[in-house]
């Protein structure tokens, strides 16, 4: 038996509870990991509260991330005692995840825990920070340099936005943060944003094409925000889209793409190939300052995760939430 959050759906009643879980609940896999830390992402909030049909198999342990130590392995790539990280692969949705003391997964889903991070710090990064790095890599590979102009980061107070600002600032980019929480402006500037704009400047329906401003964009919001970001991106600029906090729709026109040559990159963190994951984690080890990471991280116990998941969906959570599964 091990302790964890278990989501059940019996007779149409959806419920998430902290309880003792039998090992028989764990799905097939060739590596068993003793989970030390997990985290709460937007998707975890949806899964725990049942606000969206994220979970597709029951019973389910939520948690799309975890870091810990291999307990047992029949996979040649891993042995007991190895330190590992997992992000995505449907874990917490179709395969039991990280908000528990134990997980069983496929060995090819795991990445070595970078030596520059503790397990706790790796989860302070989590899928949010790893996704932020994938967005930064997309802008870099497009050829965007700090001298090219401002980079817009939407949903700036969230996990992806916070890490993106910190990384971009260290790399020398001028970052403009968009947020609906004006009171957090000084916090965002401390992370590295040069200026902060109100979410309302981008969230309402806009024109098909607007005044050129952004050399690049990292968007976590979607909907009108993404459409307006594309419409105001400069000639041959790029937009990396990775979220839908504002909606799944994309009410835009082709104008920015055919008149300005703007490129829209879709950023998928869930099924990204191993080589891409390793590059992202390697770069995080070099380009994310631990002190800035600590400033945006809140630590909670497993017993608090269900309540904090609801706060996350209500927009009450700043930065990253690390879950210590031992308490």
Structure description:
The chain is of the alpha/beta class and 327 residues long. It folds into two domains: 2-113 and 296-324, Medium-chain alcohol dehydrogenases, catalytic domain (Quinone Oxidoreductase, Chain A, domain 1), CATH 3.90.180.10; 127-266, Rossmann fold (3-Layer(aba) Sandwich). Helix content is 30%, strand content 28%. The chain is built from ten helices and 15 strands. The strands form three sheets. Strands 3, 4, 5, 6, 7, 14 and 15 form a seven-stranded mixed beta sheet that branches. The chain has a six-stranded parallel beta sheet with strand order 10-9-8-11-12-13, with helices on both faces. Strands 1-2 form a two-stranded antiparallel sheet. β12 (233-241), α7 (255-259) and β13 form a beta-alpha-beta unit. α2 (119-142) crosses α3 (159-170). The longest helix is centred in the middle third of the chain and has 24 residues, at 119-142. The chain is globular, with a radius of gyration of 20 Å. The two termini are 16 Å apart. The model has no long low-confidence stretch (mean pLDDT 95).
């Amino acid at each position: 038996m091990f302790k964890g959050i278990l989501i059940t759906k019996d007779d149409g009643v959806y419920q998430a509870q902290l309880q003792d879980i039998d090992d028989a609940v764990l799905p097939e896999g060739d590596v068993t990991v003793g989970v030390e830390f997990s985290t709460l992402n937007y998707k975890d909030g949806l899964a725990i509260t049942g606000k969206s049909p994220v979970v597709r198999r029951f019973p389910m342990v939520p948690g799309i991330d975890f870091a810990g130590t291999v307990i047992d392995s029949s996979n040649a790539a891993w042995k007991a005692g190895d330190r590992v990280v997992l992000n995505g692969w449907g874990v917490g949705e179709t395969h039991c995840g990280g908000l528990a003391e134990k997980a069983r997964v496929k060995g090819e889903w795991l990445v070595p825990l970078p030596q520059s991070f503790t397990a706790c710090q790796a989860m302070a990064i989590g899928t949010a920070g790893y996704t932020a790095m994938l967005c930064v890599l997309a802008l870099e590979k497009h050829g965007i340099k700090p001298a090219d102009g401002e980079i817009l980061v939407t949903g700036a107070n969230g996990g992806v936005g916070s890490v993106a600002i910190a990384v971009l600032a260290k790399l020398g980019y001028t970052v403009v943060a968009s947020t609906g929480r004006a009171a957090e402006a000084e916090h965002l500037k401390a992370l590295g944003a040069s200026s902060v704009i109100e979410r309302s400047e981008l969230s309402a329906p806009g024109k098909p094409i607007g005044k050129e401003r952004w050399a690049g964009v990292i968007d976590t919001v979607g909907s009108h925000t993404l459409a307006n970001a594309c419409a105001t991106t400069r000639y041959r600029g790029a937009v990396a889209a990775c979220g839908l906090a504002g909606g799944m729709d994309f009410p835009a026109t082709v104008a920015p793409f055919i008149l300005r040559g703007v490129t829209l990159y879709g950023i998928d963190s869930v099924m990204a190939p191993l080589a891409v994951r390793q590059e992202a984690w390697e770069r995080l080890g070099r380009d994310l300052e631990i002190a800035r990471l600590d400033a945006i991280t809140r630590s909670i116990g497993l017993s608090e995760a269900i309540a904090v998941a609801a706060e996350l969906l209500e927009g009450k959570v700043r930065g990253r939430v690390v879950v210590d599964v031992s308490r």
